[in-house]
């Protein structure tokens, strides 16, 4: 519960800090994105850091049983994030579990209980990219803020509108329907940015969540994964 709450609090702080100007003009896709959209880049960096932490925490267990327990624990955390309307947190955790160093551990997954696997399927359905995040949109429509949506969904939408719709009509007039579509998305983001969570800060927990020394890089994770469960050669 504490982990889920503090993850949600941190996720919302990072999400809330993005100024609306950064959502205009697809700055996050440009070469100088760090200068143009520092807060969007910070948000995606935070997402990756959280995801890496979860993966590293699971891989730090040398014993197959405790590794399976760790997967079950993190999925329970993801489910509480869902209850807190933190869909970004759900994705941070499920994407960690889907990374190849963890995903390939057949013996570990064999020890994860059926209910947890069913829970994982449910969570993944909610935040799936399928049909341009169809399920997540539906969920957000019916959700009462506070909420942390997944920023990537909105960035995809904005890019889609920017690229697919001209700025001017054939008559050379400003394309207002394009402006309306963009402002509609930004308004939705702002609505979620402005509803604060009432979560008490637990410094010990956030210190752990933000501790970079606990995080392994992708290569280390993969090497460790191969050590834990070596590749089975066919034949």
Automatic annotation (TrEMBL):
Q: Superkingdom of this entry's organism? A: Eukaryota
Which terms in the Gene Ontology molecular function aspect does this entry carry?
A: guanyl-nucleotide exchange factor activity
* UniProt key word Zinc-finger: no
Q: Does the keyword Zinc-finger apply?
A: no
Every copy of the Ras-GEF domain together lies at: 1-231
Pfam families in the cross-refs: RasGEF
Record key words, sorted: Guanine-nucleotide releasing factor
Q: Which SUPFAM superfamilies match?
A: Ras GEF
Provide one Gene Ontology biological process annotation: Ras protein signal transduction
Q: Which InterPro entries match?
A: Ras-like_GEF (IPR008937), Ras_G-nucl-exch_fac_CS (IPR019804), Ras_GEF_dom_sf (IPR023578), RASGEF_cat_dom (IPR001895), RASGEF_cat_dom_sf (IPR036964)
Q: What is this protein called?
A: Ras-specific guanine nucleotide-releasing factor 2-like
């Amino acid at each position: 519960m504490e982990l889920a709450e503090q993850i949600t609090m941190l996720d919302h702080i990072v999400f809330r800090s993005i100024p609306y100007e950064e959502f205009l003009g697809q700055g996050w896709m440009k070469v100088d994105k760090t200068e143009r959209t520092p807060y969007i880049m910070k948000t995606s960096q935070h997402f990756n850091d959280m995801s890496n932490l979860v993966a590293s925490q699971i891989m730090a267990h040398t014993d197959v049983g405790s590794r399976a327990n760790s997967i079950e624990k993190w999925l329970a955390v993801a489910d509480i994030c869902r209850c807190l309307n933190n869909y970004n947190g759900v994705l941070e955790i499920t994407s960690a579990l889907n990374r190849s160093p963890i995903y390939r551990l057949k013996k570990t997954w064999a020890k994860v209980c059926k209910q947890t696997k069913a829970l994982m399927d449910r969570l993944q359905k909610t935040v799936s990219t399928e049909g341009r995040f169809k399920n997540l949109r539906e969920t957000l429509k019916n959700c009462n803020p506070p909420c942390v949506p997944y920023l990537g969904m909105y960035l995809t939408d904005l890019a889609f509108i920017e690229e697919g719709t001209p700025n001017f009509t054939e008559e050379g007039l400003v394309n207002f329907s394009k402006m309306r579509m963009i402002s509609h998305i930004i308004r939705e983001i702002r609505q979620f940015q402005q509803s604060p969570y009432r979560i008490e800060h637990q410094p010990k927990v956030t210190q752990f969540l933000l501790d970079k020394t606990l995080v392994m890089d992708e290569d280390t994770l993969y090497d460790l994964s191969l050590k834990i469960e070596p590749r089975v050669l066919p034949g």
